[in-house]
């Protein structure tokens, strides 16, 4: 009498097929997550937080100085010496080629400031696709805090814009 052997386990071919399927799924998931955009969204969140912090600090300074915001020259130093902030928020590098924060009184290459009379705006350029999707084609997105609007949010401007004026802001969120 011949005894029949029971073989348990998977064959090499079955294991290779499973590994190939798992590898394909991993690639699809990584492409869906888009780690470069995840990092850009993280940097944008830091910019939004910094702009809001600086906007509130400028508002506090203006409140204690008869409604007059700090002058554009050395504005962040004025906030530190005035006690509104301990230190200016650190720089957040841009990964998009050709991106720059602004040309109007930049601090640490990220934070921008412009005043017109008693109105001011603190702003920084955004870079993630989710931020840019709020704007129409040919526009760039900024996060801004405006004393004229008494709020912060996302602002769209024409491509190539590097300066925002307090009176020209229209928030899209």
From TrEMBL:
Keyword set, alphabetical order: Membrane, Methylation, Transmembrane, Transmembrane helix
Keyword Hydrolase: no
Annotated GO biological process: protein secretion by the type II secretion system
Topology term for the membrane: Single-pass membrane protein
Gene Ontology CC terms: membrane; type II protein secretion system complex
Superkingdom of origin: Bacteria
Main location: membrane
InterPro entries in alphabetical order: N_methyl_site, Pilin-like, T2SS_protein-GspH
KW rRNA-binding (keyword) present: no
Annotated compartments: Membrane
Membrane-traversing stretches: 12-33
Name the record gives this protein: Type II secretion system protein GspG C-terminal domain-containing protein
Originating species: Candidatus Woesebacteria bacterium RIFOXYB1_FULL_38_16
Lineage: Bacteria, Candidatus Woeseibacteriota
């Amino acid at each position: 009498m011949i005894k029949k052997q029971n073989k348990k386990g998977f064959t090499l071919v079955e294991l290779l097929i499973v590994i190939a399927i798992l590898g394909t799924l991993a690639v699809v998931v990584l492409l869906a997550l888009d780690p470069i955009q995840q990092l850009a969204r993280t940097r944008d969140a830091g910019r939004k937080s910094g702009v809001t912090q600086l906007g509130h600090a400028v508002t506090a300074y203006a409140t204690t100085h008869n409604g007059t915001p700090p002058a554009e020259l050395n504005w962040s130093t004025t906030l530190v010496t005035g006690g509104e902030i301990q230190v200016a928020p650190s720089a957040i590098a841009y990964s998009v080629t050709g991106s720059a924060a602004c040309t109007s009184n930049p601090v640490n290459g990220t934070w921008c400031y412009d005043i017109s009379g008693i109105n001011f705006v603190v702003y920084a350029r955004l870079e993630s696709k989710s931020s840019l999707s709020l704007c129409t084609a040919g526009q760039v997105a900024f996060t801004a805090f405006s004393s004229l609007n008494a709020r912060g949010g996302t602002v769209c401007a024409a491509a190539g814009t590097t300066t925002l004026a307090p009176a020209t802001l229209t928030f899209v969120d």
